[in-house]
Amino acid sequence: MKRYRCVMSYEGTNYCGWQVQPNGTSIQGEIERALAVILKHPCRVMGAGRTDAGVHAIGQVAHFETEVAFEIRRLLHSLNGLLPQDIRILSLESVESTFHAQYSAQRKIYRYRIWQDPIVDPFLRRIVCHDKRSFCEMRLQQVLKYFEGTHDFAAFVNQGTPVNSTIRTIYRAELIKEKGGFSLEFEGNGFLYKMVRNLVGTLLDIGCGKQDPSLLPILFDSKDRRLASAAAPACGLCLKQVLY
Amino acid sequence: MKRYRCVMSYEGTNYCGWQVQPNGTSIQGEIERALAVILKHPCRVMGAGRTDAGVHAIGQVAHFETEVAFEIRRLLHSLNGLLPQDIRILSLESVESTFHAQYSAQRKIYRYRIWQDPIVDPFLRRIVCHDKRSFCEMRLQQVLKYFEGTHDFAAFVNQGTPVNSTIRTIYRAELIKEKGGFSLEFEGNGFLYKMVRNLVGTLLDIGCGKQDPSLLPILFDSKDRRLASAAAPACGLCLKQVLY
Q: Which residues in chain A are closer than 8 Å to B77, comparing Cβ atoms?
């Protein structure tokens, strides 16, 4: 068996998320289906992380195995030929069998894009979250700093796949000004189910004054999801890069 | 009657073009419908130019008239509230009754975007034309220079609305390098039906060597549409700006 690693970009708007679901079309399912056609055997594709319904990626990573010999460039071309246009395989390479898209990942970078201007650019409408509230930049920066470091993020996790621990490290939580608004970039050693969107939800509520910054220590201490804000919408989120 | 001028941006993918058609949803139709709801009377919207099915705009201009008094900011907000998200009114202002979106226009700028890399960015797939042929930049520049000036563009006009004259002036025909490929920008005093796409079709065929540059004088002299290349696909085209 030979193992391969691929990097993918997708617009998640029309999908139920990365992971194969009983109902709905998933990114993973589409790629597995295309691979099965080409390789002529069922082929499980293991992603670095599960992006939710409507979440995008410009640097999702996955691996798969096959005994079928093929020319890599050709497989890449055939895959993109079979896949819908909103899913693209950007690169494909053979890797050691010890490589695991999920377990070998050291860091992930997520980007959340907020559109502030009253009128949303129609060409960006699927990849931004429109939030017209006015934010205090100093306050946003203050909260972002607070997120950085190793914390128990239990208050920012939705019920989903069971995990051993809700402790994660965020190396960088940064605000980047952009056309129409700003982006929030999070680089961490791992992110729990809906964690980025939950962090953003609380961050924005504090940033606009709806919540007080004094809520933060309470959230981290109580580990109570119900005290934090609702998750920010999926459409603004993008998995930017997975580092190994 | 008071006259108003609006600037619009739209992703044309889902529309049969600017102009109201018996079958299909048009940009003009959507805006007229939204205006009729707000103003409570039928309202004709006159555009600066008719963009074809699938063609986009970031600076289309139109005018309309009404006797209903309203606050401009509020109307702008209500219009965008009623319109689908792929059509946005960017600005609205009252103008002299002598202003005419089409007849007062002095110049228009169209942009045609070509994606060259083998893999199309999924986030740009609706607004670029994928053309993997390899182009000689010097040749493209040579053809662009040839297009500039006042010419009879009869060989680049499709049958459509009858026109008095097929003579137009192109002030600027420019190649701009961009992520994944390049754009072609055309600034002229007016463009005939499918003219930009026809110019681009011929330009690219000459640029990749499928046609010889010596075809150009033949095209302009013969005025024969059948000698020119097929129109480039609609999805790459965008009405960038209308100058008054």
A: 118
Question: Residue range A30-59: average pLDDT?
Answer: 96
Instruction: Answer whether residue B102 is part of any domain.
Output: no
Q: For B196-221, what is each residue's pLDDT tens digit?
A: 999 999 999 999 999 999 999 999 99
Residue type, A41: H
Residue B183 bridge partners (DSSP): B113, B176
User: Are B238 and B121 found together in one domain?
Assistant: yes
Question: First-to-last CA distance in chain A?
Answer: 22
Asked if residue A100 belongs to a domain, the reply is no
Predicted ipTM of the assembly? 0.91
- On whether the CB atoms of residues B28 and B101 are closer than 8 A, the answer is no
Cβ <8 Å between A122 and B77:
no
pLDDT tens sequence across B8-51: 999 999 999 999 998 899 999 999 999 999 999 999 999 999 99
* Cα nearest neighbour of B122 on chain A: A86
Q: Which domain holds residue B39?
A: 2-95
Report the number of distinct structural domains present in chain A: 2
For residue A123, the chain B residues in CB contact (below 8 A) are: 9, 11, 56, 58, 127
Tokens of A127: 């990849």
Active site residue A224: no
CA angle B69, B75, B76 (to 5 degrees): 145
Q: Are residues B75 and B126 in the same domain?
A: no
- With a CB cutoff of 8 Å and minimum separation 6, the contacts of A221 are none
Tell whether A73 is covered by a domain.
yes
Q: What residues pair up with B118 in beta bridges, in sequence order?
A: none
